Amino acid sequence: MSGNNNNNGKNGDSAIELDQISFRWPGHSAATLQLAHFGVARRDQVFLSGPSGSGKSTLLALIGGIVLPQSGQVRLLGEDMRGLSASARDRFRVDHIGFIFQQFNLIPYLSILDNVLLPCQFSAYRRARALAQGKTLHAAAAALLTSLDLAPALWNRPATQLSIGQQQRVAAARALIGRPEIIVADEPTSALDADRQQGFLDLVQHECEQAEASLLFVSHDHRLAQRFTHRVALDAINSASMAAEDLA
Amino acid sequence: MKLLIRLAAHSAWNRRFTLVLMLIAIALSSTLLLGIERVRHDMRESFSESVSGTDLVVGARSSPVQLMLYSIFHLGGATNNMGWDSAQKLAANPAVAWTIPLSLGDSHRGFPVLATNGDYFKHFQYGSRQSLRFAQGRPFADTFETVIGAEVAHSLQYKLGDKIILSHGIGGPHLLQHGDKPFTIIGILARTGTPVDRTVHIGLDAMEAIHLDWSGGAPMPGLSIPAQQVKKFDLTPKTITALLIGLKNRAAVFGLQRAIADDEDEALMAVLPGVALDELWQVVSIGENALLLISALVVVVGLAGLVSSILAGLGERRRELAILRSVGARPLDLFFLLALEGLAVMLCGVLLGLLLLSLGILIGGPLLEANFGIVLHLNWPTMEEWQLLGAVVAAGFLASLLPGLRAYRLSLSDGLNPRI
After folding, report:
1. What is the mean pLDDT of residues B114-126?
2. Would you say residue A196 lies in a domain?
């Protein structure tokens, strides 16, 4: 499987586009990630697999604009990350990308509702888009939480009182609020049991379709891979020899 | 910024038990620091307000500080007395406006007894040249009459007409009593905030009278002179402890001081109260500075505790920082988030410390005044205290930067994937 199979064009309709990437963490002697090309089209849903050490977290750091590659180009929604300052990349990240992590996704001292609304606090763009969906931010968050099967009784509880499955759905709501163009889910189901994995993926895929967002779904669980038409194995496209040094 | 403050507040509330402990540590340490400074300041003020208008204090040759301590503050004891004839000679000096003889050595239930004469109530001044005022009654006229200070009256619940018995010597529970010669309280002085409040005043003749049948610090066996018969004896004192001198013209002070020092008849010493006090502060300041240093170290320990508890918590919060990064927080935001917390706790701690100090003065102040005659003022911090507060806040500010810097570095190296 090649990294080029879901490249729908270099400009215009690409959500994520990485070209001729070489990335080396400071203090490391060799590159962790070397990619000829990797891309996710707008509204596409891509399954990215790879054993730990294949450079996954490095790839996500590049996509999140946390780091810049030593050489090559990272374009998100047509925007070249090299042209943005570090704080502009921080802003770009919250404006256009929603992240769902493996577990412990929530700020423990905030309520469910406040956790969901966090991106709208940091980003005026997300806030405006959330308000375009619901009358108030609260209504927008409520609509998402409801469609993710979270009962209103839970909304004002602290995040720590929820089950892991519920926490992951709250994280999905936070990633989706304000309709960012890209959703990155980093092994979001690995802490869930098999039934709940399917249910969670149903919800996330459905919501991404609704929001017309691109979904980059990172997992090593191949049972889930069947649900994606586009699948990429990172260890197959990463030609860096030192990939194993990527601690994740 | 408002968002960060809100987040920091929520986060702090989440860890309120740890933070409240740190808050208490910082509050107590700043109370200690400010308290020591306040006691030092107010003690100096109390001391320097204890006497005013007196140009010279004369006594047997010893150290000026010691002479001041026992003659004005009634602390410690006289090592030597001066002759009454010398005192009279000085009183007759044409440069001298007035003199007050002072004789110390006895006590009443822990309060020093001062033997003097009517000139004391006429000429003695304290504070900014205020004279003594009677709250009730009048100066003593007869031998076994006494005038007590406000604190004596207050703490022992005495009123005019009460009879009191003096003890021989100062301090200790097993003093011999002058039980055969009780004194009648004839006057109570208005409060002055000086050692006068804690003093029992009697006449010099009374001091002689109660020791007529005593020798070498104990009643003479087989000899007892009843109170009614003391007038048959010569009650002129042979010696006194010290003599306060007021001059007609202050310019004469150094001349007279030298003349007293050069006196051939008796080895005497004349001390300028202000100069002696300065000397006293020089001695005391070594101890004061040591105390200040120790309390400053206590503050440092408190701040170190605060920083280390925040830093220790940071390990568990790396995930939280990554989440905040993922929703758009800049590394600088995370720096503020962590620095704010330390800063807020530190500021609250210092404010609480000020409050505790005020409470402490309200509650402990009267106790300190009753036992040591030091009056603590419940007032706005002094210049020195503001400086100390500023130093604490500055140290706290620097200390708060540490967790902030750590969070900043972590957020850069962790990105979205904390390596826990």
Report:
1. 92
2. yes
